C-alpha cells in the first residue's frame, strides 16, 4: 500500500469547472478501492468548504507570510480523506477557482497557486505539523505543476507524477512574477521554469516529475508534434521515455441511465425503447417540434474553437435543410454564443440553445439525444463521449486524442463484427463534419443497425476500475524512478 497525495485545483462535487474535477473526484475513490492510502488536497474555496460540510483543522502553519490552516473532512459520497488548504486572502472569494464573477482571470493566480504548490510540497514531506507524509504526489495541470520542481530541490523526497489534462493551459507569467514568488533563482533557466522569457508553471511538472501522463494514449503521442504541443514538443520528446497516456474513467454510479435519479424513468440496454420518453421531454423543454422520428443531436460543452464550433457553424446551414434537430448547452466565446442564438431564431423548430451549464439538464440531454456532437479539434480525453456511450447517444467525433481511443467508427466492417459505437471522421474542414452528420443520418434510417450500435456503445466499460489499476502501476514505476527516495 502506498501513501498518495492527490493535488488538484478542483474536484467534483466540491467544485467543478471542467473534466479535471471529474477525474479528481473519481480517481482517488477508485484508488481507495485498490487499498491505497489516499489524501485529496485542494484549496479551501467557499463552495468547497460548504459542500464538504463537517471539517476540522488538523494543522496550522505559516508560509510566505501567510497563516494557513489545513482542514480535514470527507469527499461527499465517498470515504476519501480530503484536505482543504485554507488561506482566506487567496481562496475565500467569489467566482470560480480561476476567474472572478465577471469571468476575468484573477490577477494574482500565480501567487495563489504557487502558495498552494509550496504548501503541498511541505505537507507531502511531513513538514506541516501533521504525522503523515506521502510516498508519491500526483499533480494535475499547471496549478500544481510547481510541486515536482519544488520537491526536486530536496535531498530526499516523495516520487512525483504529473498529469497533463490539457496542454493548452500552461500557467504563463512574466519574469517579474518569478522574482515575486521567491522561487529558487536557478530555476529561471530554459532547462527549468523559463520559457521564452516567461515563467512557465507547467514546465515544473514536465521537467522535474518522475513520470508524466496524459489522459489518453493518442494524446500522449499527439503532444510530441508541434501542432498539438504549444511550443513544448521538444521538451516532451526529450522526456518521452517517462510519458504515457491513460484513458480517464467515469463515475458509473453518477452516469448510469439505469439508476440516474435525474431521470423520471430509468432505462438500460434491455429497456432501450424508453429512451424515446426523454427525447420527447427534451423537445418539449426546448420547444422544438415534437418529432419522434427526427434525428436529434445533443451538444454539451464550452463554446470555443477547440470544441469544433467553426466546423459546426459551417455545417449547420446545409444539414438543417434536412429532417434534423440540435440542442446546445454551454457557454464560451461571445461570437459563438451569438451565432447559435441566431440559428435558433432562424430555425426555432430545429435548433435550441441554452447558454450556461446545468448538471441536471446535461443528464437529460444524454438521455434524450439520439446522437452526441463532439467534433473537437483536439481532445486530450473527453468525458462527454463516454457519458454518451453509456446513455446510448451515439457520439459523432473527430479522430483525435481520447475521442480516437474511445469511439469506434460505424464502418461496414465494424458494423458486421458488431464493434461500432459511433461516427468518427478525420480532417479539419467543415465539409468533413457535414459528411459525418450525413453518415449519421443514413445510419439512423436503418433502425436495426442503429439499435445494434447503441447496444454496442452501452456495453463499453469505461469505469475507473481499469484506469485506476493503470495509475497504480504507473505509481509503482514512478517510485522506482525517483532518484532521491524518502528513507523508510
Output the keywords:
2 domains; alpha/beta; 20 helices; globular; Rossmann fold; 488 residues; nine-stranded mixed sheet; six-stranded parallel sheet
Brief summary of the model shown:
By secondary structure, the chain is α/β, with parallel strands linked by helices. The chain contains 20 helices and 18 strands.
Written account of the structure:
The chain is α/β, with parallel strands linked by helices and 488 residues long. The chain folds into two domains: 3-249 and 465-481, Rossmann fold (3-Layer(aba) Sandwich); 269-460, Glycogen Phosphorylase B (Rossmann fold, 3-Layer(aba) Sandwich), CATH 3.40.50.2000. The protein has 20 helices and 18 strands. It has helices spanning 19-33, 46-52, 88-91, 109-124, 146-151, 175-180, 201-208, 217-222, 226-229, 233-238, 275-285, 309-319, 334-346, 359-368, 384-391, 401-406, 412-416, 430-445, 447-459, 464-481, and strands spanning 3-7, 37-43, 56-63, 66-74, 81-86, 136-140, 159-164, 172-173, 194-195, 198-200, 211-214, 243-245, 295-300, 324-330, 351-355, 371-374, 394-398, 423-425. Strands 3-4-5-2-1-6-7-11-12 form a nine-stranded mixed β-sheet, sandwiched between helices. Strands 15-14-13-16-17-18 form a six-stranded parallel β-sheet, sandwiched between helices. Helix 5 (146-151) links the parallel strand 6 and strand 7.
Topology:
Elements: E1 3-7, H1 19-33, E2 37-43, H2 46-52, E3 56-63, E4 66-74, E5 81-86, H3 88-91, H4 109-124, E6 136-140, H5 146-151, E7 159-164, E8 172-173, H6 175-180, E9 194-195, E10 198-200, H7 201-208, E11 211-214, H8 217-222, H9 226-229, H10 233-238, E12 243-245, H11 275-285, E13 295-300, H12 309-319, E14 324-330, H13 334-346, E15 351-355, H14 359-368, E16 371-374, H15 384-391, E17 394-398, H16 401-406, H17 412-416, E18 423-425, H18 430-445, H19 447-459, H20 464-481
Parallel strand pairs: 1-2, 1-6, 2-5, 6-7, 7-11, 11-12, 13-14, 13-16, 14-15, 16-17, 17-18
Antiparallel strand pairs: 3-4, 4-5, 8-10, 9-10
Helix pairs in contact: 1-20, 11-14, 12-18, 15-19
Amino acid at each position: 500500500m502506498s501513501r498518495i497525495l492527490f493535488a488538484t485545483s478542483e474536484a467534483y462535487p466540491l467544485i467543478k469547472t471542467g473534466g479535471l474535477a471529474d477525474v479528481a473526484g473519481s480517481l482517488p475513490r477508485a484508488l481507495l478501492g485498490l487499498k491505497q492510502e489516499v489524501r485529496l488536497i485542494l484549496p479551501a474555496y467557499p463552495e468547497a468548504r460548504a459542500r464538504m460540510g463537517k471539517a476540522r483543522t488538523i494543522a496550522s502553519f505559516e508560509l510566505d507570510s501567510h497563516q494557513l490552516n489545513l482542514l480535514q473532512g470527507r469527499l461527499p459520497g465517498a470515504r476519501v480523506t480530503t484536505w482543504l488548504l485554507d488561506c482566506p486572502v487567496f481562496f475565500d472569494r467569489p467566482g470560480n477557482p480561476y476567474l472572478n464573477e465577471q469571468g476575468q482571470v484573477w490577477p494574482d493566480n500565480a501567487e495563489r497557486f504557487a502558495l498552494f504548490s509550496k504548501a503541498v510540497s511541505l505537507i507531502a514531506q511531513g513538514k506541516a505539523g501533521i504525522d503523515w507524509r506521502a510516498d508519491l504526489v500526483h499533480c494535475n495541470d499547471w496549478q500544481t505543476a510547481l510541486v515536482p520542481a519544488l520537491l526536486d530541490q530536496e535531498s530526499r523526497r516523495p516520487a512525483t507524477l504529473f498529469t497533463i489534462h490539457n496542454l493548452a493551459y500552461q500557467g504563463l507569467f512574466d519574469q517579474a512574477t518569478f522574482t515575486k514568488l521567491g522561487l529558487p533563482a536557478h530555476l529561471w533557466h530554459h532547462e527549468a521554469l523559463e520559457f521564452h522569457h516567461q515563467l512557465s508553471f507547467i514546465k515544473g511538472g514536465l521537467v522535474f516529475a518522475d513520470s508524466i501522463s496524459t489522459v489518453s494514449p493518442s494524446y500522449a503521442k499527439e503532444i510530441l508534434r508541434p501542432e498539438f504541443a504549444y511550443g513544448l514538443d521538444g521538451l516532451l520528446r526529450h522526456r518521452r521515455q517517462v510519458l504515457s497516456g491513460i484513458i480517464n474513467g467515469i463515475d458509473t454510479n453518477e452516469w448510469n441511465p439505469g439508476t440516474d435519479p435525474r431521470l423520471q424513468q430509468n432505462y438500460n440496454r434491455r429497456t432501450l425503447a424508453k429512451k424515446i420518453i426523454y427525447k420527447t421531454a427534451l423537445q418539449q423543454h426546448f420547444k422544438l417540434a415534437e418529432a419522434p422520428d427526427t434525428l436529434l443531436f445533443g451538444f454539451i460543452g464550452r463554446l470555443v474553437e477547440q470544441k469544433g464550433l467553426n466546423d459546426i457553424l459551417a455545417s449547420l446551414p446545409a444539414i438543417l435543410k434536412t429532417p434534423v434537430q440540435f440542442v446546445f448547452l454551454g457557454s464560451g466565446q461571445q461570437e459563438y454564443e451569438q451565432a447559435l442564438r441566431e440559428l435558433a431564431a432562424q430555425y426555432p423548430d430545429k435548433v435550441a440553445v441554452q447558454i450556461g451549464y446545468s448538471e441536471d439538464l446535461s443528464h437529460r440531454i444524454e438521455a434524450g439525444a439520439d446522437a452526441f456532437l463532439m467534433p473537437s479539434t483536439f481532445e486530450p480525453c473527453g468525458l462527454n463521449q463516454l457519458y454518451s456511450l453509456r446513455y446510448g447517444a451515439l457520439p459523432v467525433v473527430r479522430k483525435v486524442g481520447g475521442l480516437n481511443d474511445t469511439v469506434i467508427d460505424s464502418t461496414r466492417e465494424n458494423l458486421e463484427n458488431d464493434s461500432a459505437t459511433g461516427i468518427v471522421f478525420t480532417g479539419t474542414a467543415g465539409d468533413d463534419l457535414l459528411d459525418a452528420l450525413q453518415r449519421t443520418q443514413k445510419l439512423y434510417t436503418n433502425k436495426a443497425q442503429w439499435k445494434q450500435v447503441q447496444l454496442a456503445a452501452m456495453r463499453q466499460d469505461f469505469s475507473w476500475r481499469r484506469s485506476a489499476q493503470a495509475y497504480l502501476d504507473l505509481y509503482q514505476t514512478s517510485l522506482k524512478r525517483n532518484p532521491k527516495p524518502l528513507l523508510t
